[in-house]
Write a structure and sequence with these properties.
heterodimer, A: 242 residues, 8 helices, 77% helix, globular, B: globular
């Protein structure tokens, strides 16, 4: 077997046993990471010498941006797994990922807007980074709407998978928009080849918050996938009349 | 190739015999664009400034309006299943239908745009650039729209959903299309914007036929 890991969880019952075992631990870890991350970000981290206390918005804003983009990459990967291997769980998981990714994108947009008001003097600028992030949010909405637009939910799954794969071209545009175009939005300062350009007192809370967002993403996706499995069972039961 | 052209010819003949369908799209384009002078006021310098964006957005909406019938009729009467069984690859079938769609809507929209440009007080050079950018950008819209139409085939509330899917993907066409006219006004070279429009068209030409064929196969399965 070439890829045992992706086929291991293809069986929904096996997935449910797996997720039932790790969900409580993951939930506790998520709560712990959020508590410590928010404590460090809001109380421990020093205020910025230029931005003052508003720099704390970054700890909410930046991880949401990172993981909403990563969640879209995951969505595209799940779409490929569904179309190529007809992986039965990929469709259910894609349905679980999309609303969480959309919520993260929205958190990123709204918190960025709150940050832009005191820093740039405006709620919104139509520059490349903000616009491409807004497009990512719309791509998520399109995915959610398309996957639910058919009476046959499997048809919706596969149509949404094609859309996710086409929409993935937007990801590099978001990532590199701040380098390609000179805009109000600051260029990347953590993900750089020569190391992050951020002091450890800021970087550590940021990374803890990033871990917290990731843990929440995984927790919600596993939980929602389980719910989706249950919903499909009910659908089948209703169809077969048992 | 002859099969490809035969399919394009068939779609053109169908459109020719129902000229109302294409005319409604063009009428929408003119109407939507002519609402803006009523909305923002008739000052020509304001209108000339917003004209490229207004005409491009109106063309984008007009194209969206025409797209939901692209595969729907063939899907409803079973022709699409026959096309899927035909020796012509489904990728080329989809491409042929998009080509026909461009000839029936994209091309007339671009041809009509100079007249609207005059109404908005654009100068000759801007009108020429705008028309050229619409000519180069509209095929991308037909291809992206074809993908949206294929994906939403058989969906509930298809029309609004189609716009939600296609408009985010079509944003680069809008940006570079309007950017070409703005660059001309600003005295910069317009070539970069046309190059980007062409690159976008090349990219969509390479990607969307496969995605359309995948979506159509799901629909007729």
């Amino acid at each position: 077997m070439a890829m045992p890991s992706i086929h291991f969880l293809a069986n929904p019952a096996r997935f449910q046993r797996f997720s039932a075992r790790i969900l409580p631990w993951l939930g506790a870890l998520t709560a712990l990471l959020w508590a410590s991350g928010l404590y460090m970000a809001l109380l421990v981290a020093p205020p910025d010498y230029q931005q003052g206390e508003t720099v704390r918005i970054m700890f909410v804003h930046v991880p949401a941006a990172w993981w909403s983009m990563a969640a879209y990459a995951l969505l595209a990967g799940l779409g490929a797994a569904l179309l190529v291997w007809r992986h039965p769980l990929a469709a259910l998981m894609a349905r679980a990922v999309a609303p969480v990714g959309a919520a993260y994108a929205l958190v990123c947009l709204v918190s960025g807007s709150f940050w832009g008001r005191p820093m740039w003097g405006t709620w919104w600028v139509w520059d490349a980074r903000l616009t491409s992030m807004l497009l990512l949010f719309f791509l998520y909405l399109g995915h959610i709407a398309l996957s639910r637009a058919f009476d046959d939910s499997e048809r919706g799954d596969r149509a949404a998978a094609v859309l996710a794969l086409v929409g993935v071209v937007n990801l590099p545009v978001i990532k590199f928009s701040v380098d390609w175009w000179n805009t109000l939005h600051q260029p990347a300062s953590v993900m750089k080849l020569d190391g992050p350009a951020i002091h450890p007192s800021i970087l550590t809370p940021l990374l803890v918050m990033a871990a917290a967002y990731l843990a929440l993403l995984v927790f919600l996706v596993l939980l929602r996938t389980e719910t989706e499995i249950g919903r499909r069972r009910l659908e089948t039961a209703a169809l077969t009349g048992r | 190739m002859s099969r490809f052209m035969a399919l394009v010819g068939r779609d053109l003949r169908l459109a020719w015999r129902r000229p109302g369908d294409a005319a409604v799209v063009l009428a929408f384009f003119v109407l939507a664009a002519s609402l803006f002078p009523l909305g923002v006021g008739p000052a020509l310098e304001t209108l000339a400034r917003i004209a490229p964006g207004v005409l491009w957005v109106a063309a984008l909406f007009a194209a969206m309006l025409s797209l939901d019938r692209l595969f729907a009729d063939d899907f409803a009467d079973g022709t699409l299943e026959q096309l899927a069984l035909a020796p012509l690859p489904l990728e080329l079938t989809a491409l042929a239908k998009c080509l026909a769609h461009w000839i029936v809507t994209g091309l007339p929209l671009a041809v009509l745009s100079p007249a609207l440009g005059l109404l908005f007080g654009l100068d000759a050079a801007s009108i020429a650039t705008l028309t050229a950018s619409l000519l180069l950008g509209a095929p991308s819209l037909s291809l992206l729209g074809g993908l949206g139409a294929a994906l939403t085939l058989g969906a509930r509330r298809g029309g609004a959903l189609l716009s939600l899917l296609v408009l985010p993907l079509a944003v680069p066409v809008l940006i570079f299309g309007v950017g070409a006219v703005e660059a001309l006004k600003g005295g910069d070279g317009v070539l970069a914007h046309f190059a980007l429009l062409g690159a976008f068209l090349a990219g969509t030409l390479a990607i969307t036929p496969w995605a359309m064929a995948a979506a159509l196969r799901q629909a007729v399965e």
